[in-house]
Amino acid sequence: MNKLLNLVPVHRSDDIVKLRHLYDTLEIQVRSLKSLHVKPEAYSSMLISVLLKILSPEITLEFNRRNSDYSANYNIEKLLEFIRTELECRERNALYSISGSKSRFNLQQHPMHRNTMNTTLRLMV
Hints:
Blueprint: H1 2-5, H2 16-35, H3 40-54, H4 57-66, H5 76-98, H6 114-124
Pfam families: DUF1759 (PF03564)
InterPro entries: DUF1759
């Protein structure tokens, strides 16, 4: 739970590497909590609050726009699904933008994601 409270903010929505790292960390930690039989209701509202503060304003706005029927039953799975979809769209968009010119997205080769990006590029061809 401590790792979830100390997540690194993603200030820019075009920082795909940081967004991928955030999503991967979230996925690992939420799965760990599930394996310990911690119910999502126990941490969902607090974690959603933390995540909406550390995500870029653009991503937070889009999440709120898509979930304009705000209710007390926001759940972490819904937010994780949104982040995953948003991330995959941004990764695909960045791959299409790379062809021949330098991408306007922040795709520095982070050691942890170097192989993932290479594999993704090979699959896209």
